[in-house]
Amino acid sequence: MGPKLMSSIASLFLLGALLQVVSAVDHDVGGDFGWNLPPNTTFFSDWASNKAFSVGDKLVFRSKANEMHDVAEPNSEVDLDGCVKPGIVFSTSAVFSVALDRPGRRYFICTIGNHCNAGMKFDIDVLAQPGAPNSPLVPPPPPSSASSLRFGALLAAFSGLLLTIVA
Ligand SMILES: *[C@@H]1O[C@H](CO)[C@@H](O)[C@H](O)[C@H]1NC(C)=O
Ligand SMILES: [Cu+2]
Predict the structure, then answer these.
(1) Contacts of residue 92, Cβ cutoff 8 Å, sequence gap at least 6
(2) Distance from Cα 44 to the centre of ligand 1, integer Å
(3) Where are the domains positioned within the chain?
(4) Which residues approach ligand 1 with their CB closer than 6 A?
(5) Sorting pLDDT into bands at 50, 70 and 90, what band is 140?
(6) Looking at the CA of 31, which ligand is closest?
(7) Identity of the highest mean pLDDT range in 6-10, 110-114, 129-133
(8) From 2.60.40.420, 3.30.365.10, 1.10.1790.10, 3.30.450.40, which CATH number describes the 24-143 domain?
(9) Residue 72, Cα to own-chain centre: how many angstroms?
(10) Which of 3, 54, 79, 96 has its C-alpha lying 20 to 30 A from 111's C-alpha?
(11) What pLDDT is stored for residue 23 in this prediction?
(12) Edge-to-edge, what's the strand order for the sheet holding 26-28?
């Protein structure tokens, strides 16, 4: 294998790694409001239904220092609807991240007091990859948003790759 081919292959690996990094998203649960007692019972389900989640993304649960919350993952829609508390609670700390490491539906609640019934619950569909066909209906982002950043990064990666092959 010639050194040129070797470096081209290395560049392809780099490109792949870069694409993964570029496309992973950290989702702040509840946006700026955070993982706190919501103003109404649909706040978090509304938040989740306006987002697309993919494998490699993270959910970041941030709670106010003067509110006590946790994060737990019921196994089913029925348990989510009924606010059935699962045996395992992930965390009671003020900031907690959940890696979305597999595709499929996942359910999240707070198990403290009646917080779940008050709206601290939502479910998400994690897609195998960004833009998979079963994405929720989300209007395309304006050109100035993250996707053009992604495109820019892609372009930079490709020009890097070309330079390596030519060199
Ligand atoms: C719930 O609260 C949010 C934030 O204040 C608001 O945007 C939304 O319209 C409310 N939903 C309902 C059903 O009242
Ligand atoms: Cu809570």
Answers:
(1) 68, 69, 70
(2) 10
(3) 24-143
(4) 39-40, 42-43
(5) very low
(6) 1
(7) 110-114
(8) 2.60.40.420
(9) 16
(10) 54
(11) 77
(12) 26-28, 58-62, 95-99
Q: Is 41 left (phi over 0), alpha (psi -120 to 50) or beta?
A: alpha
The string of pLDDT tens digits covering residues 66-96 is 999 999 999 999 999 999 999 888 877 789 9
Determine the Cα–Cα distance for residues 126 and 57; give it in Å rounded to an integer.
9
Q: Do residues 21 and 39 lie in contact, with contact meaning Cβ atoms separated by under 8 Å? A: no
Tell me, in angstroms, the distance from the centre of ligand 1 to residue 42's CA. 7
Best residue for ligand 1 mutational test, from 32, 36, 37, 40 (most atoms within 8 Å of Cβ): 40
User: Residue 120: is its pLDDT beyond 90?
Assistant: yes
